[in-house]
Design brief:
Layout (H helix, E strand, L loop, with lengths): L2 H10 L2 H11 L1 H16 L9 H13 L11 E6 L2 E6 L1 H10 L3 E10 L2 E5 L6 E5 L6 E10 L4 E7 H11 L1 H5 L4 H4 L1 H17 L4 H13 L34 H4 L4 H15 L5
Antiparallel strand pairs: 1-2, 3-6, 4-5, 6-7
């Protein structure tokens, strides 16, 4: 174990750090979660150059969202940047956060190939595929969801629209020769469409949405995320999004004794956000 990895391990396993993780994850899950963080750090020389405090902060953010930072799961990633670890939610992380609300019947994002045509019903707003695939060139991406109450939405973005979107909102990252838009183009395209669908039309738990918005603001200047992801998963996109939800005040000591499990979970998330300056 390198000296820095030992330092990170000591930091994460301290009583104070374990207590904060336990509030979010429950005492039984703390050990396994911290071990997964240390595995991610051990597998990245650049993460081992990051400060222990930034690794702790990013890992606690992930735990607050109930996302694993194990690269093999594709939910979230610890990304080294300028000596600090930054949390990047993966495509599967966004997908899982949405599904976890219990409001969705399905969510899907798929490629549109040359020869195929996407037609929008101007009355309903839904998109349909027509034509016949004539090659392997991807000309766009289509995304859709349906909620359990019957509400649904589809969006389609051509490759040109996706890349124009990236050039407009993340010119530095998009134009970087070493950035993920150059190294993982299709992964970025897919994630862009999913995030557009969920942010504009979907539903996220309000406290999860607040944490995600703050994460996206913090990573707006990350231009070279060296993230190892499983096949078909999606890496970060740096477009900042407007804040969707605010945070309320934490409960008073008197009310803590009677709070419900749901209220406790919300309080823990709000306390975490207050610790890191969200909404205060």
């Amino acid at each position: 174990m390198t000296n820095q990895l030992a330092t990170v391990s000591e930091y994460l396993r301290s009583d104070v750090s374990r207590a904060r993780f336990a509030e979010v994850l429950g005492e039984r899950n703390v050990g396994a979660y911290i071990s997964s963080v240390l595995i991610a750090v051990a597998n990245s020389d650049k993460l081992q150059e990051c400060s222990a405090q930034s690794i702790y902060s990013s890992a606690l953010r992930a735990a607050t969202l109930r996302l694993s930072v194990d690269p093999g799961l594709g939910q979230a990633y610890l990304v080294p940047y300028k000596g600090k670890a930054t949390l990047i939610p993966g495509y599967k992380g966004y997908h899982d956060l949405a599904i976890r609300t219990g409001k969705y019947r399905y969510i899907n994002v798929g490629k549109v190939f040359e020869g195929e045509e996407v037609v929008e019903d101007r009355m309903s707003g839904f998109h349909k595929l027509s034509g016949q695939r004539t090659g392997d060139k991807v000309i766009g991406w289509i995304a859709a969801f349906e909620m359990v109450n019957g509400y649904g939405k589809t969006i389609y973005m051509s490759i040109e629209e996706i890349h124009e979107h990236a050039r407009r909102y993340n010119p530095t990252g998009y134009n970087s020769e070493t950035g993920v838009w150059k190294k993982e183009t299709q992964a970025m395209e897919r994630k862009t469409v999913l995030r557009q669908l969920l942010h504009k039309w979907g539903y996220m738990d309000p406290t999860d949405a607040q944490v995600l918005n703050e994460i996206e603001k913090d990573v707006s200047d990350v231009i070279d995320a060296e993230v190892v992801e499983v096949a078909s998963d999606v890496r970060l996109e740096n477009e900042p999004e407007p804040e969707l939800y605010g945070t309320g005040e934490t409960q008073t000591e008197q009310s803590l004794a009677t709070e419900t499990p749901a209220e406790k979970a919300e309080r823990i998330q709000q306390d975490f956000m207050k610790d890191f300056g969200y909404g205060v």
